[in-house]
């Protein structure tokens, strides 16, 4: 199949990139033998704009996308986070390529009101919409035209290529990286943990409390020295929603702590992720696993094996292709056992 993946490709970061689910999707499509092209709306808009002022290049980026579609003739267009591309352009793609189907993938949280509206907007023109929140919370997007599905955060073995579950010689005992304080109060809990833990372990909080954020290879190096990590969303309010750090930690064999309010115990195997219900409970569990390295390694190994085997980019990409094109599922996708092929809940 010929697939065009529209999403921000971080070209102008020149290597100092964030871990990207859109890139993992491209890798997974290629591993499944789909001829895949990418189109980076933000980068094209900047490259085409006068003086490189990105907002002045939006119309040109939409025209360049239509040129790309004419040249490439995709069977499937996946519109990820590409706000510079209008629904009118996606409609035009369907008119020019009647055989082509369109998917929208959205990896952002539903507690951000603008993101809810963004998904509804795309659902008006897409054939299928995929959201990283659990399917039971996606009924608000039904009736706009698109079928609605849950998708996970995947790992890719070329990116999550560490296995810290096999190591005890790691200098960072606990890690939390962040770069956004919008819609959240999570840093208060992080501060309380730092105060309570003191010098009993090496707790790095890149991006907060005066510690510079880490990107690209600096982030890779931080992960490579980490035993345990905090998987704190900005809010813990939606079923099966997690930021991409869940996959980044699990895929690298780093034990993670996450809220029990998200119901991931219904998806992930027992004794793989550590769930907590309040701050004191979390503090006690951090101390428990810090003091029992064999237990830390066993739980982290179980999570890593599960993510690398059942939630990898190859399965992730094929699921999106099959659901969008209404092909029967070729795998028992663990995250979609409550979803029918048409996107409805079982």
Automatic annotation (TrEMBL):
This is Glycosyl transferases group 1. InterPro entries: YkvP/CgeB_Glyco_trans-like. Residues 188-320 form the Spore protein YkvP/CgeB glycosyl transferase-like domain. It comes from the Bacteria. Pfam families: Glyco_trans_1_2. One of its GO terms (molecular function) is transferase activity. The lineage of its organism: Bacteria, Pseudomonadati, Pseudomonadota, Gammaproteobacteria, Cellvibrionales. The keyword Transferase applies. Keywords: Transferase.
């Amino acid at each position: 199949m010929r697939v065009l993946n529209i999403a921000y490709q971080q070209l102008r970061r020149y290597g100092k990139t964030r871990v990207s689910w859109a890139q993992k999707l491209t890798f997974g499509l290629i591993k499944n033998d789909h001829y895949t092209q990418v189109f980076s709306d933000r980068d094209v808009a900047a490259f085409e704009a006068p003086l490189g002022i990105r907002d002045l290049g939006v119309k040109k980026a939409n025209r360049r996308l239509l040129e790309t579609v004419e040249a490439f003739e995709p069977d499937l267009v996946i519109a990820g986070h590409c706000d510079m591309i209008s629904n009118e352009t996606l409609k035009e793609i369907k008119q020019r390529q009647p055989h082509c189907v369109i998917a929208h993938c959205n990896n952002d949280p539903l507690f951000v009101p603008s993101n809810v509206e963004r998904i509804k907007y795309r659902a008006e023109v897409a054939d299928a919409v995929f959201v990283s929140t659990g399917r039971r919370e996606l009924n608000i997007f039904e009736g706009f035209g698109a079928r609605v599905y849950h998708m996970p955060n995947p790992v890719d073995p070329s990116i999550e290529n560490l296995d810290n579950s096999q190591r005890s010689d790691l200098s960072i005992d606990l890690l939390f990286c962040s770069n956004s304080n919008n819609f959240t109060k999570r840093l208060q809990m992080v501060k309380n943990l730092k105060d309570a833990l003191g010098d009993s372990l090496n707790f790095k909080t890149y991006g907060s409390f005066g510690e510079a954020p880490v990107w690209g290879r600096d982030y890779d190096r931080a992960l490579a020295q980490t035993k345990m990590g905090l998987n704190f969303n900005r809010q813990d309010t939606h079923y099966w929603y997690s930021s991409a750090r869940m996959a980044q930690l699990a895929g690298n064999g780093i034990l993670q702590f996450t809220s029990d309010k998200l119901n991931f115990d219904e998806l992930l195997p027992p004794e793989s992720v550590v769930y907590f219900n309040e701050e004191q409970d979390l503090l006690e569990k951090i101390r428990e696993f810090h003091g029992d390295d064999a237990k830390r390694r066993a739980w982290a190994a179980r999570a890593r094996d599960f993510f690398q085997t059942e939630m990898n980019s190859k399965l992730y990409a094929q699921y999106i292709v099959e659901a969008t094109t209404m092909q029967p599922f070729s795998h028992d996708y663990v995250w979609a056992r409550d979803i029918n092929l048409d996107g409805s809940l079982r």
